[in-house]
Amino acid sequence: MSVFHFFKKLFRKRWRRWRRAIWSCSIVVLVGVMVWSGQNITDQMKRLLTAAFDETPLAVETMEYLQIEDDKQEERRQDQREFMQKLNTSKGKKHVHVRITYVCGIEEQDMGKLTADGIYELMNKNPLWQGRLDNKGDVWLEQTVSDLSPACKRQAYMSIDANGNLTLFDGPPEEEKVMRTFFQLDVGSMESSLPKDVIQQLEEGIRIQDMEEYNSVLSTFSDYARDMAENVMSPSP
Question: Where does the source fall among the domains of life (predicted)?
Answer without folding.
Answer: Bacteria
